[in-house]
Amino acid sequence: MEKKNIRIKDIAQLAGVSIGTVDRVLHNRGKVSEEALQKVLSTLREIDYKPNLIARTLGTKKVFRIAVIIPDPAQDEYWAQAHLGIQHAAVEWNQYDVKVETYFFDLYHHESFLQLTQAAHVNKPDGIVLAPIFYHEALHFLHQCQASKIPFVIFNTNLPEIHPLSFIGQNLFDSGRVAAELMSLGQTAPGAFTVLHVNEASENSIHLLDKQKGFEHFFKVKNQPDFKISALDINETEENQLQEHLQILLSDAEIKGLFVTTSKGTAAIAAILKKLNRTDIRLIGYDLLPENIQHLQAGTIDFLINQNSRHQTFLGIQHLANYLFLKKEPPATNLLPLEIISRENLNSYLGSALPQF
Amino acid sequence: MEKKNIRIKDIAQLAGVSIGTVDRVLHNRGKVSEEALQKVLSTLREIDYKPNLIARTLGTKKVFRIAVIIPDPAQDEYWAQAHLGIQHAAVEWNQYDVKVETYFFDLYHHESFLQLTQAAHVNKPDGIVLAPIFYHEALHFLHQCQASKIPFVIFNTNLPEIHPLSFIGQNLFDSGRVAAELMSLGQTAPGAFTVLHVNEASENSIHLLDKQKGFEHFFKVKNQPDFKISALDINETEENQLQEHLQILLSDAEIKGLFVTTSKGTAAIAAILKKLNRTDIRLIGYDLLPENIQHLQAGTIDFLINQNSRHQTFLGIQHLANYLFLKKEPPATNLLPLEIISRENLNSYLGSALPQF
DNA sequence: GTGAAAGCGCTAACAT
DNA sequence: ATGTTAGCGCTTTCAC
């Protein structure tokens, strides 16, 4: 069964037109008569034409430019990992004439975000990958992009009201349920669990609330009245202050476990729990930050849910590049698995941070 | 910084020879005078030539044939999923002149394996992806391949003494430790856990023993003498017989949990536990087979460790094709993460069975 | 031994 | 609007 692949030349022959015409309809560049158009379209419908990517990239001289806009990797390890995913994707596509330009904004200043997005916009990239940290500014920017017909992919947090080419992230409600499940496992005696939001500006905390709701929902459905669920916002960048808050919370003898909704918060809480030597507290948090990895190995953290920012950005560029290059529509929403990381499977994840393909 | 890439043509010009000559030295096909050789080599040393792989694949007309040898997908859902990974990879590479030929052997008859491998061998494929189920036969076959200089990738179970181009699978010892960790979590009262090997021929059970050892090792290190660990082989294809065996085991009031080392075994044990209504037993097993998924959702199974046979085969072909096509060396051993699947994160895995890229 | 030249499938500029 | 043609960088064949 050596079925030769169909080439543009074949389509042209079948449709009785020239390859130039076929190329024009394939890329709808116009300048094609209604008659020729129909002939080509009908033969296209009959056969399964799959363009030869290799040949396309060789033949074309167009260079696609993708602008990636994320928080400064230096400010936060989570975003440093996101940056790694970008770099990985960038080298992968480099030989295919897709260039990635990165813009780093200040995680704590929306003016910086505003400024960067505008800078990116004037450069007129062919596509944009964005971490929409600042809700209003992001919305404004993305409307601009829609007006300029620049396709965009968003990741990390969803903006369902805008319709991106693709959203990449996790189901945060389910994420909270996973945390709850791990928290409740094998807990027999009555007790209390607290959801901790540590040092999060209100913008982002809308999303963190989803995790909390999922967490609470799990226990509601399970109907286990033996467990008291509470939630607490702590805004203290000073470790000592943070510790004081925590100690008040932990003075309640019923507290059996803590669920921290951010990666950085997880590291902060773990450090304090370790200092206080409270190994009895079950701690569940987010992401494979170096500190979190250590605390997981040491047993201070019991489980991490991996949000895999690295993979998120990687996929973001992947989807966008495939769209620009191959006109392949990505999934409107691409939800990543809620990876449960424990002490024993940690190493197996560290070895293969990125999906080899 | 639009630095043009160096082309063969450039080298030819610099060395004062023709592109044909440059090509000959690049691939050391001989037929080059000592003088020309030196001229080319010296200019090659001066500049950093990176061949354009895109152009290479377009220019070449060689069709690579990859032989994939796995158990009959009809015999076992686990292998059916492996087959899906193959099909996925096959369509991906189809247009790039990499053809995949599959050979299905009988999972229960090594003669069939022997026969199939020989059939594959006489067809002289350019590369082989193999599930080395039958140890001795596999070893013999792979030695043949080495003699014939056919590169091969193995997956699922490792044969460390032979040196494959790449091995794709999981660390089975660690896999057992993960199971143990999940088993012990929150278990306060003393109790007993049993490792179950269900209906496995001795060949394969060598590898299953690794899982058992990892499981035992976890408790040894943890130094929790409160837990009694045992292991049991059950060879009964009849459900009733299997149930009898299990009931004897479960009549021991101390039994708190079971760890089943195979995917099929997991499904079988789960079915019986459900029938016996033993929801008190913590059950940990392998893989997202349809039955296992149901039992996980119903709560009969507490955790599954995903071996992702689909991804394994996909990667196998991926690595081999990249090697043949682009001369890209794959990792000698590619260990997949030990994915922990619970009721709450199950859906997030079902949505994305394969890594999108 | 060596160079010239014809592709590979596609794009894009150029005639018509 | 349509067909022809010259590349893209490399492989491979074929004269010399």
TrEMBL record, chains A, B:
Top-level taxon of origin: Bacteria
One of the Pfam families matching this protein, by short name: Peripla_BP_4
InterPro entries linked: HTH_LacI (IPR000843), Lambda_DNA-bd_dom_sf (IPR010982), Peripla_BP_I (IPR028082), SBP_2_dom (IPR025997)
Start and end residues of each HTH lacI-type domain: 6-60
CDD domains registered for this protein in UniProt: HTH_LacI
SUPFAM superfamilies: lambda repressor-like DNA-binding domains, Periplasmic binding protein-like I
Keyword annotations of the record: DNA-binding, Transcription, Transcription regulation
Any one Gene Ontology molecular-function term assigned to this protein's record: DNA-binding transcription factor activity
Protein name (database record): LacI family DNA-binding transcriptional regulator
UniProt source species: Adhaeribacter swui
